[in-house]
Every structure is written in C-alpha cells, then in structure tokens.
Amino acid sequence: MNNSVSNTARLLWAGLRALLVLTVVTGVIYPLAVTGVAQALFNDKANGSEIKADGKVVGSSLIGQSYNLPLKKGQETPEPDLKWFQGRPQNGLGTNSVNTRYKLILSGATNRSGDNKDLIDWVTAAKAAVVKDNSVGGYTVKPSDVPADAVTSSGSGLDPDISPDYADIQVHRVAEKNGRSVAQVQKLVDEHTDGRTLGFIGEPRVNVLELNIALKELVAKS
User: Could you tell me the CA-to-CA distances from 191 to 165, 194, 195 in Å, in that order?
Assistant: First the structure.
C-alpha cells in the first residue's frame, strides 16, 4: 500500500516537473526567443510592415486602401478620388453585417466563375470607368490598354499593389488633377516600381499607398 502511494506520488511529481519545464520552455523561453529574433532581424515585418507619413502610421505595405470621396446624400457606393492613384477593385469584400459596432477590414474573393454574369458585369463596368476616368486632355486610354488588375480584385480583396501598366495609365489623370507635369508623376511611378522578388518570383509591382504618399509630398513642395 505504502509502495503504491509512494509510486503514485513520485509519478505525479515527475509529471508536474515535466509540465513546469515544458511550460517555461514552450510558453516563455521559446516565444521570447522567436520575438527577439524577429525584432532584431525583421523589425519592420514583425511589426506589421507599417508605413509612416508625417511621423504617423498611415497603413501597412501589405494591405490595400481605398481612395474615395466622401459619400454624398443618397449614395451607397463612394466615387473614387481621382487626384490619387487607385488600387485594384474590391468586389469580394462584402459588408460587415455581423458586428456593426466596429469598422472591420473584411477580406475575401468574389467566388465567381469566369462566365458568371455578375463578374462579367463588374469587369465591363470597371473597364469602362478606367477608360473614362483616365482619358484626359491630349491622352486617351483605349480598352485594350486596360490591364487585368485594373478590373479584377485579388483573392483577398486587399492587394496593396498594382501593375506598372495600371499605374502608367493613371499618370496623365493624376498629373492633371494635381497640377503637376506628366514627367514629374511618371518619375514617381518609376521610382516606386519594384521588380520581381529575387529576380524571378511574381511580377513587377507598385505599392499604391507608398506611391500616393510620395505624390502628396510632391504636391506639398510647391
């Protein structure tokens, strides 16, 4: 009997010690080590890839933003603010109907097939809008000039980047709206165009938020 109690106590004590050791190692030491390495070697990425302007955090380089005018009375969908470069459409995001107490960032794809009527209508309308909005005095955008990312949303709906082609067709409109030369605005696009990751992964891209911050700084100089 005494041996049985003694063995049970010894096993419980061994289990408790193992629990304490594993708790310290996996619950304290390991998280601290990973956090320390991340902060030391990947500080920017570990903290959300924040983008700052005027000393304030204005967004993340990983999450796209909308650049729209305030809603007018009776409007359900805001109009784009055409003095800024515009990102990709966000058709897949839907609306927050679950918890309306907070303004949530929603993520999601359209989940529409290539022959879906809604998707076809969205793409057709988006292409027409891109042609209309970016055709300004002395510069006309043809439907064949409109790249795919200008009329389709990404899988998450939060793509922060656009293709250089989409940025280029917006240059004349942005220059006109902000009273700047086409050469000045085109230079901004060229400076904010990133190539393929490691030279072969993905496609060249332009981060819209970073580009618009540079545009704001350019406009503020005069």
Answer: 14, 8, 11
- The CA-CA-CA angle for residues 155, 216, 213, to 5°, reads 40
CB 208 within 8 A of CB 192: no
CB of 211 closer than 8 Å to CB of 189: yes
Q: What is the pLDDT of residues 104-154, one digit of tens each?
A: 566 777 778 888 898 899 899 999 999 999 999 889 999 999 999 999 988
Q: Is the pTM of this model over 0.90?
A: no
